[in-house]
Specification:
Elements lengths: L1 H10 L21 H13 L19 E2 L4 H11 L6 E3 L16 E3 L4 H15 L3 E7 L2 H16 L3 E8 L8 H11 L1 H5 L4 E5 L4 H14 L4 H7 L4 E4 L23 E5 L7 H6 L10 H11 L32 H32 L11 H7 L3 E3 L5 E3 L10 E8 L5 E9 L17 E5 L8 E5 L4 E2 L9 E2 L4 E3 L6 E3 L1 E3 L6 H26 L4 H4 L3 H17 L9 H35 L12 H25 L3 E5 L6 E7 L3 H24 L10 H24 L3 H32 L6 H8 L1
Parallel strand pairs: 1-2, 2-3, 4-5, 4-6, 6-7, 7-8, 19-21
Antiparallel strand pairs: 8-11, 9-10, 11-12, 13-14, 15-16, 17-18, 20-21
Helix pairs in contact: 1-12, 2-3, 12-13, 14-16, 14-21, 16-17, 16-21, 17-18, 17-19, 18-19, 19-20, 20-21
């Protein structure tokens, strides 16, 4: 109910997560390891069958998990949730094994550091002069750790242990006879001990054990002396992990057995409106909440289901009429922790939305959808969150993922009607030390720098260098963010990088794709015009077949530029540069063949020329085939030795992960470009020399100009390509492909199209010969 209340408050707050709806699912671990793993997997995978080592798809609306109350539950949940970096808030676990934040970076405890509680026990015992105490701990790894540390602290303060016993964790799941037998066998020291103060270290389930052992000791004293001791009031000192709200199976136990107990409790305050919210609960109107139905039926001994005629619940039953041992109307420490955990997740999510929106809004003017935020993107923000909740309490974590707070000390007062009240009698705060340093501490975002000639205690604070952060005070050096993150402006925490590539959805990608398709259509129309007028002199001149090959190659050149747009994958990466290199080589080879054909025809026109045998289509086809085959061989070697592959560039652009095609071998890429440049240079040279040959159908002038444009484009491409990064590097190559192709198309074919379409009277042999003369 505390989590529901917090969510309702957040939804009603226009300044926190506006236009975002929060929801939740509740799972019951049943204090069972198998069920804990099962429900955690179900929460992550949303499936009815699970497979070992299978990577589940995390539901896009899952942003965090709150649980569990016991250390075993929390640890087992962290085993799974930590793999996916899903933030987990444990609201009652002090598990020492989970304190290493490097092992569980997404694990946060809504409780202070446990060592503070140890010190509080010792201070309390010293304050009252209790030097003869008993110790009972739960038989777990956490209980063993507590025993070792606490016994050492007691001996240092002059306090002796009268006895030390352990008890099983889940004793409340067995029957009364087994409980009696177990108690009589494992706690003889407790039965005979004269120690009137007993420190109890356990969890919520331990309450069943405490009430049971006192119950058995009262009914079954071993000796007359034990009978006298059974009437002596014991003072129980309990840890904050324990909750005195009893389980349903303990309703018959007397609360008076815990009268006068002193308990360290997680700090809590009265939350305005919470009790009124509880009064509005009605099991008949609760949809999708089976917990309310079960709780209501057990509490009021009635049935919500209409299948039963007798003892139907009316919904008018009042929760405040129940004893506090069964349902506490106040917000307890654990409930207060859950309340704050919901707010911590909400604030982290709000910051993530705000930061990502502010960065992306300038680019595309669109707000990100809620489901675009993943759990791993907010877990690193939680540790740096600091806010005041609705009551005014400050909320933040330390570097170990523990709540920066103290403990309340409560005295348990019970009444004959089995009700109780926890009276706050003290507060345990972390030690406050006076400030005495040479200089102020270096804030996050800076690191310490030694002052020359000064003591090592005196230092300057220098801003972290580019690409590094410091997320704590007085750091000796700055640290780098992980590869998928980058520093914020303050250099005090890392933000998730955004994946970028030239897509069809952005303006630049749309513009380039539109140009490519437009010029592809123009080329296709030119090809159609030449096919339709294939028998006219201007089309038949300079080898009609070469003209078709050149136009088809240019059409494919325009279309191959589309391979560079969109998210790179294995296929497109293999095809991008190789298709571009081979198709352009065919186009340039066709141009070279056209130029050499003109030269050979002119040379063969001279009497006795040895070039007569080269006149014909065989020479042109041989040139196109051999030049293209060479480029094909270069590309084949490239793909066989070090082919291109999709990759991610984490470092070139700050704040971005560039999804790109890694060329595999850069030298092979430049070999492809170099070979095209070689062919273009030869074509330009031959066309330049043949530009003034006396032939009516000599197109060497146009070829010269087209190759000049082609070479200019690709000479300027290399330095521009090397000076750009990310999607703009891809855009430069696409632009170069389009510009050079347009140069060939326009310079070679526009004069011919002008004559064919607009001046058809000039498209005959007599007119061309007369114009030439």
């Amino acid at each position: 109910m505390a989590s529901v209340f917090a969510i309702n408050e957040i939804m009603g707050n226009p300044k926190l997560l506006p236009n975002v709806t929060l929801g939740f699912h509740i799972y019951d671990s049943c204090s069972n390891s198998r069920i804990t793993y099962r429900t955690t997997l179900d929460m992550v995978c949303k499936s009815h069958s699970f497979f070992p080592n299978y990577q589940c798809g995390i539901p896009k609306n899952l942003i965090g998990v709150i649980g569990g109350l016991e250390s075993d539950t929390s640890t087992r949940m962290a085993d799974i949730l930590g793999l996916y970096k899903i933030p987990q808030f444990s609201y009652g676990s002090f598990e020492p094994a989970a304190n290493d934040q490097s092992n569980c970076p997404a694990f946060y405890r809504m409780v202070p550091n446990e060592i503070l509680q140890y010190e509080g026990f010792v201070q309390l015992l010293v304050h009252f002069g209790w030097t003869w105490v008993g110790l009972m701990t739960m038989d777990t790894e956490a209980g063993e750790h507590f025993s070792k540390v606490f016994e050492t602290m007691l001996s240092q303060s002059g306090i002796c242990l009268a006895f030390q016993e352990t008890f099983p964790k889940n004793v409340h799941f067995i029957g009364m006879e087994e409980i009696v037998t177990l108690f009589l066998n494992i706690v003889p020291d407790f039965m005979r001990s004269t120690a009137n103060v007993i420190v109890l270290y356990g969890e919520t389930a331990s309450i069943a054990w405490v009430t049971g052992i006192i119950f058995v000791k009262t009914l079954f004293p071993i000796t007359a002396a034990d009978y006298e001791l059974s009437s002596i009031a014991r003072v129980w000192i309990m840890t904050a992990q324990m909750d005195v709200t009893l389980h349903i199976v303990q309703r018959d136990f007397k609360m008076q057995t815990l009268h006068g107990a002193i308990s360290f409790a997680i700090h809590s305050k009265k939350v305005q409106g919470f009790q009124e919210f509880l009064q509005t609960i009605n099991p008949l109107k609760a949809k999708g909440d089976g917990f309310i139905k079960d709780t209501w039926e057990n509490a009021f001994s009635c049935s919500v289901s209409t299948d039963y005629v007798d003892d139907l619940c009316t919904g008018e039953e009042r929760l405040d009429s129940l004893p506090a041992t069964y349902f506490d109307m106040s917000m307890t420490g654990h409930s207060y922790s859950i309340y704050n955990a919901v707010y911590a997740l909400a604030h982290a999510l709000h910051i993530t939305y705000s930061s990502r929106f502010s960065r992306r809004a300038k680019e595309d003017g669109r707000r990100l959808a809620p489901h675009s935020v993943e759990p791993w993107q907010i877990f690193s923000l939680i540790q740096r969150i600091s806010f005041n909740n609705s009551i005014g309490d400050e909320f933040k974590f330390n570097e170990h993922g523990e709540l920066v707070a103290g403990f309340d000390i409560t005295n348990l007062i019970t009444f004959p009607n089995n009700s109780y009240v926890g009276v706050k009698v003290g507060r345990l705060e972390p030690q406050v030390r006076p400030f005495s340093q040479c200089n102020e501490k270096c804030p996050p975002g800076t690191s310490k720098k030694k002052k020359e000639g000064e003591k090592f205690c005196c230092y300057d604070c220098t801003s972290c260098p580019e690409g590094k952060i410091s997320d704590q005070q007085d750091m000796d050096y700055c640290i780098s963010c992980s590869e998928d993150q980058y520093p914020n402006k303050g250099k005090d925490h890392c933000l998730p990088k955004v994946q970028t590539f030239l897509s069809f959805e952005e303006h630049l990608g749309i513009s380039l794709a539109t140009l490519a398709l437009y010029f592809s259509l123009v080329t296709a129309l030119v090809l159609a015009v030449f096919i339709k007028h294939r028998d006219t002199p201007i089309v038949k001149a300079n080898n009609r077949s070469l003209t078709y090959i050149l136009l088809i190659a240019l059409l494919l050149c325009f279309l191959c530029s589309l391979l560079f747009i969109g998210q790179p994958n294995k296929v497109t990466c293999l095809l991008r540069q190789t298709a571009f290199g081979i198709i352009f080589s065919i186009a340039i080879s066709s141009v070279l063949a056209k130029t050499i054909t003109v030269v050979v025809v002119f040379m063969a026109s001279k009497p006795g020329s040895i070039f007569r045998k080269w006149v014909g289509k065989r020479l042109a086809y041989s040139l196109v085939f051999s030049c293209s085959l060479t480029q094909l061989g270069i590309c084949a070697v490239w793909l066989a030795t070090s082919p291109p592959f999709p990759g991610q560039d984490m470092h070139s652009v700050s704040g971005e992960i560039i999804v790109e095609c890694n060329e595999g071998s850069v030298s092979m890429f430049y070999c492809v470009l170099g070979y095209m440049g070689f062919l273009a240079t030869i074509s330009f040279s031959v066309a330049f020399l043949a530009r003034k040959l006396p032939d009516s159908f000599n197109e060497a002038k146009f070829i010269t100009f087209s190759m000049l444009v082609f070479c200019s484009v690709w000479l300027s491409f290399v330095p521009t390509y090397l000076s750009t990064k990310g999607k703009y590097m891809v855009a430069v190559e696409i632009f170069s492909i389009l510009a050079s192709s347009v140069g060939l198309l326009g310079c070679i074919f526009s004069p011919k199209c002008y004559i064919i379409i607009l001046r058809p009277e000039l498209n005959n042999r007599e007119q061309l010969k007369r114009r030439n003369n």
